[in-house]
Amino acid sequence: MSLYWLLIIPFLLLIYLSLYQSWEQRHCNGRAYFLAPLPRRRRLRRLIRAHGIILVPVVQLLVRVIPAARKIQSVEIQGISVPRGVCSSESMAVALDYQALDGDIIVATPMKSGTTWMQQIVYQLLTRGEGDFNGDGHLQALSSWLEADSGVALAELSGHGGSAKRIIKTHLPAGLCPIHAQARYVYVMRDPVNCFASVRDYMQQLYGPFCPKTEQLLDWYLGDEMFFGNWHSHVESWRTAAQRHSNILVLRYEDLLAEPANGLRRLAEHLREALTESEFDKVLAHTRIEYMRKDEEFLEMNPPNLFTEHSGVSFFARGGRGDHKVSASSAARVDEMAGAMGRAYYSRAKQ
Questions:
Q1: Least C-beta-crowded within 10 Å: which of 3, 54, 197, 297?
Q2: pLDDT per residue as tens digits for the range 298-323
Q3: 70: phi then psi, degrees, rounded to nearest 5
Q4: What own/partner pairs with CB < 8 Å and gap ≥ 24 does 337-345 have?
């Protein structure tokens, strides 16, 4: 191969990568993707996989040449770190100015603590287990992300199950999330070690070669740079808020896994939803992890990208402590950060 082609091919590949990124941003942002019909979503994913055959190795080589490219894209707004390109000053301003409508249901969690699962549980509760997306819709088109630019805007969001009850998710700490008496809040917390493992796996899937190495991810997870605050500060903010506000229900991810029927009854009572036994059984069946994994293309949290489509990993995984591999030294560091609150949490989750 001539010197000319040795010089020109990398240049052409970088142009290809840049053009692809522009295309992906137009067609696979949250709103464009989640509101698209299922055939179009499937077509987009096929196109991404086809582009990835060439572009994923290009990115892998690029990161080897420029190791500094391994970094988490974040921005600080209102004193917390949020994902760049997902949240902005404008979207955070909308979140802080949120005015609840009567019956709004806010699903709040730290990152990777069962958010999508709880959204599905609430949706199925409101629809009495009949929420099937009509074979074409998407859970993220039926729910707003309070502080994000992507997805359905609050003003466009409608109620479910013949009611005006809207489903809104947030990762904001309680100190930044407006608490209104006419809304109901559900906060899901998760074992901090397993939460770290899930965050690590998710970031590796989402960022691909750009993802920092595990030790750097752990430093990030434990520090103030963690999206929306680290586990201890986030959980403490919502547990404190729940002591002051009776319309906040705190649930534990592991309890929901171990005793889903009990968790569902507590949630139904909190949301003031009276179900028949037949309806309850339907909701229970449609919110099991196995069912959700089967219907993942209606429930995925993120639009696809080059790396998610080539990871071969399911978005949904069963997540008790020990189900993900975490080194003893990493677990010890997470336990130290979680402190007494974490130890009390483990004790309760094992009961």
A1: 3
A2: 988 889 999 999 876 665 655 444 45
A3: -75, 95
A4: 337/192, 337/222, 337/230, 337/231, 337/232, 338/192, 338/231, 338/232, 339/232, 341/232, 341/235, 341/236, 341/239, 342/192, 342/231, 342/232, 345/189, 345/191, 345/192, 345/235, 345/252
Handedness of CA 193, 196, 200, 205 (dihedral sign): positive
What does pTM read for this prediction? Answer: 0.91
Strand segments (E) across the chain: 74-77, 80-83, 105-108, 143-145, 167-170, 184-189, 248-252
What whole-number distance in Å separates Cα of residue 144 and Cα of residue 239?
23
Other Cβ atoms within 10 Å of 7 Cβ, number: 9
DSSP codes joined into one string, 15-28: HHHHHHHHHHHHHS
Residue 45: strand, helix, or coil = helix
- 74, β-bridge pairs: 83
In the predicted model, what is the mean pLDDT of residues 107-126? 95
Q: What is the rounded distance in angstroms from the CA atom of residue 82 to the CA atom of residue 73?
A: 9
Average pLDDT for the chain? 89
Q: How many residues in total does the chain contain?
A: 351
How big is the CA angle at 105 (ends 103 and 109), to the nearest 5 degrees?
A: 165
The residue type at 70: R
pLDDT at position 292 is: 85
Rg, C-alpha atoms of the chain: 21
C-alpha–C-alpha distance, residues 231 and 240, integer Å: 14
Nearest to 298 by CA among 29, 25, 37: 37
Q: Which DSSP symbol is given to 176?
A: T
Are 152 and 31 spatial neighbours (Cβ–Cβ below 8 Å)? Answer: yes
Structure tokens at 70: 């391994």
- Torsion angle (degrees, nearest 10) of CA 92, 94, 100, 103: -70
Looking at the DSSP assignment, which residues form a beta bridge with residue 167?
105, 143
Q: What are residue 83's phi and psi, to 5 degrees?
A: -70, 125
